[in-house]
Amino acid sequence: MKGRILFVEDESDLTLIVANTLKEQGYEVETAVDGVDGLAKFKTEKFDIVVADVMMPRMDGFSMAREIRKLSSNIPLLFLTAKSSVEDVEEGFEIGANDYIKKPFELRELFIRIKALLRRNVVKEQGNVFPIGEYVFDLATQTISYRGNETQLSYFETKILELLVSNIGKTVDATTLMISVWERDDPSNRNSLHGYIHKLRRLLRHDKSISIINQRGFGYMLSIKS
User: Fold this and answer.
1) Rounded to a whole number, what is the distance in angstroms from the first to the last CA of the chain?
2) Whole-angstrom Cα distance, residue 174 to residue 178?
3) Which is higher by pLDDT, 109 or 211?
4) How many CA atoms are closer than 13 Å to the CA of 84, on its beta-carbon side?
5) How far apart are CA 181 and CA 160, in angstroms?
């Protein structure tokens, strides 16, 4: 068995097609018709990943995900959404989603993303850790630690910090950051990027050797003084 999936979706035809195809590929699949049903099953059974629609009756996917994150900080969450605005996608990631896919979608793309998230969860056990001065950044668990005190990062904070850490001492172009995180560059994304940079600066403020420098007109650089 490749993994146990909780698939939460109120469209019965889509549920039947996805669940049957996943089972044919060797996954074990449990289905739920809405957020209330999905949350109840998550509380009583063990799963390796949750795939959920956003818009559902009784309890939507975002509300269900908030409750799931209270119970587990590690379970991969993949949203299915007909919503396309940056704000909607951003809300999902802030709640704790690991990925999203827009409806309508190709089954093959969904299966690729499920496989990638399950693989990433296995990598967590091996660790993907980066020292940043006195801080320790764990990419797999999306956390940053300072002298034993751990802080959970949002998806956007993690993605931005990953790009900065991978280019310490080098300027990362703002457009590159926005396309990597939001898949497009527009004024609203620039404002969001600036806000997340401010959050990261606050998180890293205890080590005075660390700074995130704004290279005006170009981008941002993570600098660590020796």
Assistant:
1) 49
2) 6
3) 211
4) 5
5) 7
* Domain boundary assignment for the chain: 4-125, 127-224
Q: CA dist 75 to 47, 95, 154, Å?
A: 8, 13, 14
Q: What angle do CA 13, 19, 23 make, to 5 degrees?
A: 150
Measured CA to CA, the distance from residue 120 to residue 198 in angstroms comes to: 28
Question: Is a pLDDT exceeding 80 seen at residue 152?
Answer: yes
DSSP state of 85: -
- Residue 56 tokens read as 């559902």
Which tokens in the block code for residue 58? Answer: 């009784």
**Helices 86-95 and 187-203, axial angle in degrees (round to 10):** 20
61-72 residue pLDDT tens: 999 999 999 898
Could you give the C-alpha distances from 32 to 19, 103, 114, 163, in angstroms and in order? 11, 18, 17, 37
**DSSP calls for 175-201:** HHHHHHHHSS--HHHHHHHHHHHHHHH
CATH code for 4-125? 3.40.50.2300
CATH numeric code, 127-224: 1.10.10.10
Which residue do the tokens 């620039």 mark?
190
